[in-house]
Each structure stands twice: as C-alpha cells, then as structure tokens.
Design goal:
264 residues; mainly alpha; 2 domains; 70% helix; 0% strand; binds zinc ion
C-alpha cells in the first residue's frame, strides 16, 4: 500500500513521528511506574531522584532532555539517555507502521500492538517483568478488531491458532529444558508475550517473527558479553520478541514470498 502523493506520505510521517514521540514518553513512563509500584493513571510526572513534580516544559519528548543537557532541572541528577532514545525508537516504529500500512484499521490495530510491545519491552528492561495488564490489553484489543471484521467465528479460530502457534511449542520446550537443566529456562512473561503477538498474525509470519526474535536475542547476548550493558549481565528477552515481531510485521510477508519462490 502507498500514499497517493509524496506530500501526503511526508505529512502523515511527520504527524505520526510527533505522536510516536509523545506516546513513547507516556509508555516509557507507564512502564517505569508499573515496575516501581506506582499508579499509571494517578499522580503527576516527577523526577525519579528528587521527587520534584515536573512541569510541561520538562516533559517535551527528547527536546527537554537535550535542552536540560540530560540533567534534572531541580536537583541536577543525571537523566539516563535511555529515555530520549526510547522516545525516538517509539516515534520511528510508529512512523514505519503508518508509512507501510498507510491509513487503515489495520494500521490502528498495529499501532496499538506496537505500543503494547514497546511498553512491555521497557518494563522488561527495567525490572524483568512483562506486566499481565499489557498481556490482557493485547488480547482484548485483538478480540475487538476480530469482532469488528467479518466472519467472526473463522477469524477467532485463526487468531487462536496464531496465538498458540509459537507459544505452545515454546512452552513445551521450556518445560522439557527446565526438567533437564533444573533451573528456569525462560520467564513466564515471555511465553505470554509469544501468545499475544501470535494472535495478530498467521503462522508463517509468526515463524518469521520467532526467527528474528532469536537473532535479536543472540545479538543482545553477544553484545552483553563484550559491553557491560547491565550490572547483572542478564538480558531480558521481551525486547527481542518485540523487535522480532515488529520486523516480521513489516517484512514477514515479503520474506515468506521470497522463501517460497526458491522452491517454485
Ligand atoms: Zn530531580
């Protein structure tokens, strides 16, 4: 799918990027709050170090961080560059979805999925947790879009097959590995995330997503060996799942066509 004119594509891209920056800031903050026992809905944004309530000027995505040179305006404590980086990643992901799928219901559904994956990744990076409320939100969102489409029973079956296509084999594999290794092989949150992302795609795209996720996971693992990314060197798998399925969402269909073409 393509936008009718270049102007429309650029305009939609810019608006989406701005929306992505704002949503990135909100979702990153929501993930931080979920993993630090704070309410997502209540309470104004505050500095994590001094607790001072932040004004609107302190909350402009990316720009506030640049303007304040990466420090809190009130206590001078360093603010991690991870925050503006996360906002840029979310903006990039949103823009890629809109430019790829243009303006459609499918785009809305994928933007919601991307938001949930982004928030889950942030939470996993902060505290090795994929909050259950994100899992539930992902399932509910998919069910709503299934009900809005035609032939609901068939679509529901397809959705369930998609959800189980990766999560069930992975769950069985993990159970066997845990029996053999006698230690946790994979977090329950990761398996639930496999189920949720699987609901949105067919089995082929899910397989491509799993492949990409494994490549990302191996890449992150190798990187953590060379660079001390985290104090405990334990790398959460949630962001790799998100990145893998995001790539599959955009390129999965083309990759499957190319692969099948090799045998024709
Ligand atoms: Zn402060």
């Amino acid at each position: 799918m393509k936008f009718p004119t270049t102007f429309m594509a650029v305009y939609a891209g810019v608006v989406t990027a701005l929306l992505g920056l704002v949503m990135g800031s909100f979702l990153n903050c929501a993930a931080w709050r979920m993993t630090h026992g704070e309410s997502v809905a209540k309470g104004r944004s505050h500095c994590a170090a001094c607790g001072h309530t932040l004004s609107a000027l302190d909350l402009v995505p990316v720009f506030s961080w640049l303007f304040l040179k990466g420090r809190c305006r009130y206590c001078g404590e360093r603010i991690s560059p991870v925050h503006p980086l996360a906002e840029l990643i979310c903006a990039g992901a949103y823009t890629a979805v809109v430019l790829h799928f243009t303006i459609s219901w499918e785009t809305v559904e994928y933007l919601i999925l991307v938001s949930l994956l982004f928030c889950a990744s942030c939470a996993d990076l902060y505290d090795y947790i994929i909050p259950d409320r994100l899992i539930v939100a992902g399932i509910v969102c998919r069910l709503i879009f299934v009900c809005l489409g035609g032939d609901v029973p068939a679509a529901l079956l397809q959705t369930l097959i998609g959800g189980l296509s990766i999560s069930l084999p992975v769950l069985l594999l993990v159970l066997v590995m845990e029996k053999i290794l006698k230690k946790e092989a994979m977090g329950g949150g990761d398996i639930k995330l496999f189920f949720v992302v699987g609901l949105y795609f067919n089995c082929k795209v899910n397989l491509v997503g799993l492949l990409f996720a494994c490549v990302c996971g191996i890449g992150a693992g190798l990187l953590s060996q060379r660079v001390r990314l985290r104090a405990d060197r334990h790398i959460p798998f949630g962001p790799s799942i998100a990145a893998g399925w995001f790539a599959a969402m955009l390129a999965g269909g083309k990759i499957i066509d190319w692969y099948m073409g090799l045998f024709m």
